[in-house]
Every structure is written in C-alpha cells, then in structure tokens.
Amino acid sequence: MDLLQNPFYILNASPRDNRRRIVELADERSLLFDSSECMGACSELTNPRKRLSAEVAWLPGIGPKRVGEVLSLLEFSPMDLLVVDKLSSIARANLLAAGLERLHDHSADDVAKWILEIAWTFEGVDPGELGMIINEDRIVSGFPEVLDTSVVEAEIQERRRYYCQVIKSTKIGRASCRERV
Fold first, then answer.
1. What whole-number distance in Å separates Cα of residue 172 and Cα of residue 178?
2. Predicted confidence band at 172 (pLDDT cuts at 50, 70, 90)?
3. Is the pLDDT of residue 156 over 90?
4. pLDDT-derived band of residue 171, with 50, 70 and 90 as boundaries?
5. Which CA distances in Å does 165 have to 13, 95, 105, 137, 168?
6. Sign of the four-CA dihedral 125, 127, 132, 133
7. What separation in angstroms does the CA of 41 have from each of 22, 29, 89, 114, 117?
8. Residues 99 and 74 sit within 8 Å (Cβ to Cβ)
C-alpha cells in the first residue's frame, strides 16, 4: 500500500484518532472526495485487525505536523526524502518506497542508491519496537492493543513484499533484478 493510498492519508486521520473522530472524518471527506473510498478507509481504520495493516504501512511514531512535512516532500520534492532522518525504521522505509515510486528520469546510480537505502532501513525494523509504537497510539485512540508480536511480524513481511514490488516496478529495478537472477 502506497502512502498516498493509505486510509490515514485518505481521511487525513491520525493513528491517535478514536472511532468517533474517524467516522466524522470519513463523513466530511466523503462530501469532497469519492464516498466509497472514504467509507472503505473508515472501515479499515475502525476494524482493529485491518487497522494494523494501515498502521504498519503508514508513518508510525511520527506526529501529525511532521507527517504533513514529509508528505509535502513526497509530493513536491521526492529526492529530498533521502536526507530525512529521526524517523522509525518502518516509517522511513515506507517513505523511501513511496519516493522511489515517484522518481522519474533518474540514473541507474540514483535508483540503486534508493534501493540500498530502503534495504538498509528495512533491516532496522524491530517488531517489538514497532508493536510498542502502534500500541501507544492505540491506547490513546481507544483501540485494543496488539498483544501478539507474530501479527506485527506478518505485517512487516507484507511490507517487505510491497517494497520488492516497488523496486521491481522501477524501470531500472526490473533490469537489475533480471541481471541478478
């Protein structure tokens, strides 16, 4: 799931928003945007199991103001994402993958640099730490905590598959994957 297709982005919601606030945001946004997309996002964010996928694919551990800043970079200056720091590993990896999808007309060296950054960042993802970050937000929002680390690990592996898809979808990424195989 790309950051700009994430239910949190669609509804302009925070992982700390409670059910009532998420429903309000969905109602408000459905007046301006695709109603079925907004209601689908609402459904995902109010169902604790589906919500976990959106939480892991979002920007865990980043406050709303910083989220706005990094999403602005993503939309208007993706190359600047490489120097963004002080993010959780999963948030940085998600941001880099979204940036890689938006790179156009760059050299093979540039793309290789992005791929390596994603890989190095992903290596730092710790399921226990990610679970704590998610649970901190869930406590504030009134959603049940994730007690089973294996479900967090499964979502992390889903992100890994997504990153591989992003890499393979880059023109240069497809060529380099074929060369290695």
1. 10
2. low
3. yes
4. low
5. 26, 15, 19, 29, 5
6. positive
7. 9, 11, 24, 29, 30
8. yes
- Write the DSSP string, 37-105: HHHHHHHHHHSHHHHHHHHHTS-TT--HHHHHHHHHHHHH-GGGGGG--SS-HHHHHHHHHHHHHT--S
The predicted structure's pLDDT at residue 173: 47
pLDDT in tens, 146-155: 999 999 999 9
pTM of the model: 0.90
Question: CA–CA distance from 9 to each of 25, 120, 127 (Å)?
Answer: 11, 26, 23
Per-residue pLDDT at 181 exceeds 50: no
Yes or no: say if 101 and 164 are a contact pair by the CB < 8 Å rule: no
Enter the tokens of residue 62.
Answer: 């980043």
Distance in angstroms (rounded) separating the CA atoms of residues 142 and 127: 21
**Gap between the Cα atoms of 67 and 117, Å rounded:** 20
The residue whose two tokens read 């209601």 is 39
